[in-house]
Design goal:
Rossmann fold, BirA Bifunctional Protein, domain 2, 5-stranded mixed sheet, 16 strands, alpha+beta, protein biosynthesis, 429 residues
Length: 429
């Protein structure tokens, strides 16, 4: 027998019963970003491989082990995007929209791809919403990004379940001095490091700070601290960020081991973390990357941004039971019609009601069926009310109106009064 078709491991279908929560989350974020003056940009999911090698760093785990890379028919090396910042920078450079110091406040949404070991909250195809801001270099814009996410957590009802961690990586020069001191310290304790950290010591030593290995963490207790190597500019920037967060009342924790997994970060880095999702604790993270645009061939242009994982935040909403009641209901009203004449009249009536109530979720029965079968479908739809159109109703140019989710007797409503009645009842319901 042939093997049954199935999705690739770690690349999941999002089924109809799941999509309402996704749409609620995505819509909430989109409205928030509109209110803060951000504009959406859409980039391809496939880019030249060189883009990610130049931006993320050739010795990062993403480039070395996790990218989906292939040659196309022209022999070009292409990669499914593992993150959005590099693609967004490529887009603004290609189209010149940050030239001349133009400020751009952009956001995007879509799938990313990394060949990782799939587990709950960590997949090979995953979805992110990302923000990138160009040509603003002060701590005020760093603060705005964090304040926006704080507001989002409040709107979603998960503010008590997340914690903000902050650090500053300084400029490339100060980070270089710190790197030398860290390598010297860790080299003296080489035998106590785990195998992965020994490898990173030669390629990307700052990533050793992010280790989960308990023995290596013990070594890091007395390691040099980045804060001691910060330049004056970075220190002032970081103090300005903290002052703004304090002014708004956003709590945070300073985490000197927070370095992020990508080479392009400088100055501010931050993560929103939770203990509600097991091992996958980061739900939103980002920071400043003032040298990336120049590194990718553009003129010196400051940048800062973040990305949030949609799968993890949807999972949080489910775990914390922060799902609005209205999104679990896909239908407000279900129209049952009996007989061809009633079906035709029902279609016309439904369209008139939709003209008057464009936000009403009105489903018309399809496939005919007996009174019992249509009512069974009406109940299964989750609708609050059923509309009934049969011979008696046709004669009276009225429709039967029956509550499905609570007390109340069936009523007869005239066709020309139906929209007004539904507007009142559905809002109250």
């Amino acid at each position: 027998m042939s093997k049954s078709l199935q999705a690739i491991r770690g690349m999941n279908d999002i089924l109809p019963e799941q999509t309402p929560l996704w749409r609620y989350f995505e819509g909430t974020v989109a409205r928030l970003l509109d209110n803060y003056g951000y504009k959406q940009i859409r980039m391809p999911i496939v880019e030249f491989t060189e883009l990610f090698k130049r931006s993320i760093g050739e010795v990062t785990d993403i480039v070395e082990k996790e990218m989906y890379t292939f040659e196309d028919r022209n022999g070009d090396s292409l990669t499914l995007r593992p993150e959005g910042t590099a693609a967004c920078v490529r887009a603004v450079l290609e189209h010149g929209i940050t030239g001349g110091g133009q400020v751009q406040k952009l956001w995007y949404i879509g799938p990313m791809f990394r060949h990782e070991r799939p587990q709950k909250g960590r997949y090979r195809q995953f979805h992110q919403i990302g923000l990138e801001v160009f040509n603003l270099d002060g701590p005020d814009i760093d603060a705005e990004l964090i304040i926006m996410t704080w507001r989002l957590w409040g709107e979603l009802g998960i503010r008590d379940a997340v914690k903000l961690e902050l650090n500053s990586l300084g400029t490339s020069e100060s980070r270089g001095r710190y790197r030398e001191a860290l390598v010297e310290y860790l080299s003296a304790h080489h035998d106590k490091l785990d195998e992965d950290s020994q490898r990173r010591l030669k390629t990307n030593p700052l990533r050793v700070l992010d280790t989960k290995n308990a023995d290596t963490q013990a070594v890091l207790v007395d390691a040099p601290k980045m804060a001691d190597y910060l330049d004056d500019e970075s220190r002032a920037h970081f103090e300005g960020l903290k002052a703004r967060l304090d002014a708004v009342g956003i709590p945070y924790v300073l985490n000197p081991k927070l370095v992020r997994g990508l080479d392009y970060y400088s100055k501010t880095v931050f993560e929103w973390v939770t203990d509600k999702l097991g091992a996958q604790g980061t739900v939103c993270a980002g920071g400043r990357y003032d040298g990336l645009v120049e590194q990718m061939g553009g003129k010196p242009t400051t940048g800062v941004g973040f990305a949030m994982g949609i799968e993890r935040l949807v999972l949080m909403l489910e775990t914390l039971e922060q799902i609005p009641e209205e999104i679990s209901r896909q239908v407000d009203v279900y129209l049952c019609a009996f007989g061809e004449e009633a079906e035709l009249a029902g279609l016309a009536l439904a369209e008139r009601v939709r003209d008057q109530l464009p936000n009403l979720r009105l489903q018309v029965n399809a496939g005919a069926g007996s009174f019992k079968s249509q009512f069974k479908k009406a109940d299964k739809s989750g609708a609050l009310y059923a509309l009934i159109l049969g011979d008696d109703e046709m004669a009276q140019q009225a429709v039967g109106f029956k509550p499905l989710r609570g007390q109340g007797e069936q009523q007869s409503i005239a066709w020309d009064a139906l929209a007004a009645h539904l507007a009142t009842c559905v809002v109250q319901g």
